[in-house]
């Protein structure tokens, strides 16, 4: 199983509840296909560098997971079918990126505790 990181941007017109439901839907797609979710980060509403679909902001979300390569195709198909997703990108992490992700996850969890 490989380790992946996916970031997706949701349309800014969603309520917090709708945003959480959409993230839960994508997490369910992963878990139903046998992936193991390692980390989830909601970065919140951010200003984008350029407008996409005439929107200048979006809800950014990050998911880190371990899965078989075929699961990535299933996840990206789910992204394309959902009109709430403006952009997405999934990358395979090599061993150095995976180590950095663990460090970042620890740093992020320490900030939440404080």
Describe the structure.
This protein has 114 residues and is an alpha+beta fold. It is 43% helix and 41% strand. The relative contact order is 0.27.
Number of helices: 3
Radius of gyration: 14 Å
Helix content: 40-55%
Structural class: alpha+beta
Quaternary organisation:
single chain
Please outline the major beta sheet: 4 strands, antiparallel
- Strand line-up across the major sheet: 2-3-1-4
The percent range for strand residues is: 35-45%
Summarize the structure.
By secondary structure, the protein is α+β, with helices and mostly antiparallel strands. The chain is built from 3 helices and 4 strands.
Task: For the structure shown, list the relevant keywords.
4-stranded antiparallel sheet; 114 residues; globular; alpha+beta; 3 helices
């Amino acid at each position: 199983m490989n380790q992946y990181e996916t970031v997706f941007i949701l349309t800014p017109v969603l309520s917090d509840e709708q945003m959480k439901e959409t993230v839960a839907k994508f997490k369910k797609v992963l878990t139903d296909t046998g992936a193991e979710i390692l980390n989830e980060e909601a970065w919140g509403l951010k200003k984008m560098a350029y407008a996409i679909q005439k929107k200048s902001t979006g809800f950014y979300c990050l998911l880190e997971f371990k899965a078989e390569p075929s699961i990535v195709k299933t996840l990206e198909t789910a992204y394309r079918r959902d009109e709430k997703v403006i952009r997405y990108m999934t990358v395979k992490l090599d061993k150095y990126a995976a180590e950095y992700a663990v460090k970042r996850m620890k740093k992020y969890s320490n900030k939440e505790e404080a």
